Amino acid sequence: MMKDPYHCGMDAGSWPTALGNSWNSRVSSSTATARGKSLWSVPLPGRAAGGITVTADGQVFVTSGNHLTAVKDGRIKWSVQIRALGSPVALTQGRLITNEIGSLTIRDQATGTCIASFPAGGLGTPAITSEEHIVYIHCSKTDNPRLLRIDMSGEVVWSRQLSQRSTYPPLLVMDLIVVGDGSYCRAYDRDGVLRWIANRNGFQLPGSTRHSDLATAQDGSADEVRTPVIRFGSKLILVGFRWSAGSGFFVFDLGEHNVRPLRTHLPMRGPVAAPQIPSERSRLVAVGRLKQDNHGYFQPTVVTVDRHGDILWTYQTSVEMHAIAADAAGKIFIAGSPSVTRWEQYHSAPLYNQKEECFVHGFNHDGEQLFTWYAPGPISAPLAIGANGELLVVSEGRLWAIG
């Protein structure tokens, strides 16, 4: 995988964050070995998972049913009751950060015990700097959203006002902290100095513009950042925008300060992954356009494009992809699932085929299908890759390891 001077040390794990790494690309640092065989499963406190995190020693942490559960080698080590928002973030020295309602909490990986906690109402998903400072977007009902950088004691290093709330984690790239904020992406340096703002129409550098004006500027349109900010190359980031007349993905060159759209239009829905094939540049895997089948019905697709947006391969699915993970070799794993409501209404019907809707497909980087694993029921949105290359899936109240 690519190296970066601001790349944080927490990526020693195979899936240490909600989006797989600090580049927000849903790509593991490990190579997956899964071929569609169930290795083990363990029961969880809730039917669906909110997040999965895997640390360097192979521990798996799952948030479900108002609990945080630790699993190692197919056995539950402990489970504590918390009101978590999304996935924990793995730290060094045996620690976890949990985003809980009303607080940001540091917990012991070995026991789940709270080490430190400080009030942080309505916060977004945190990112961790190389100094292990916490960076996140703080939102409240009374104040404007703010981008905060705090140390592990909760002391604020700096705070910057934003224009709109967001739950996406900041992106740490090229010694910058980049966040999506309303109609713009905004980049700050380590000291919280605003370096630029950019949208699909281009970059604006501070120059003669007053810092306070640029920091909260809006372009007056219906533009909105609708995806995490994703690293897409050594000096590139990828962002999805929606506006009044359409939507699309745009590539921002941080070295040349220019912006270009992907050549192929992709729907602005569903998760995306941005794996890098060995000896090649990054590519994007996303929900594609509907495709008409032999019976005249329009079916969902998954599409892979190169960094310019040219289509590399497309795969037709029976239901729209709702979860995705990729490994260090460029293999792709996608999950399809009905909603719980649809499942409850139809899964007992004589003609209902659950295999058409509750599945995980695995592909190599050329689009060759490697396997299909069928789940016993609806699959939760998070997928993750374990330390030994296994694929981790939550379905019907159980964590499954697929080898």
Question: Could you write a compact summary of the structure shown?
Answer:
With 403 residues, this protein is mainly β. The chain contains 2 helices and 35 strands.
Description:
Helices cover 3% and strands 42% of the residues. It has helices spanning 211-215, 340-346; strands spanning 38-43, 49-54, 60-64, 67-72, 75-81, 89-90, 95-100, 103-108, 114-119, 127-128, 134-138, 146-150, 156-161, 171-173, 176-181, 184-188, 194-199, 202-204, 224-225, 230-231, 236-243, 246-253, 258-261, 284-287, 291-292, 298-299, 301-305, 311-316, 321-326, 332-336, 359-363, 369-374, 384-385, 391-395, 398-402. The chain has 403 residues and is mainly β. The strands form nine sheets. The protein has a five-stranded antiparallel sheet with strand order 14-15-16-17-18. Strands 19, 20, 21, 22 and 23 form a five-stranded antiparallel sheet that branches. The protein has a four-stranded antiparallel sheet with strand order 1-35-34-33, with no helix packed on it. The two termini are 23 Å apart.
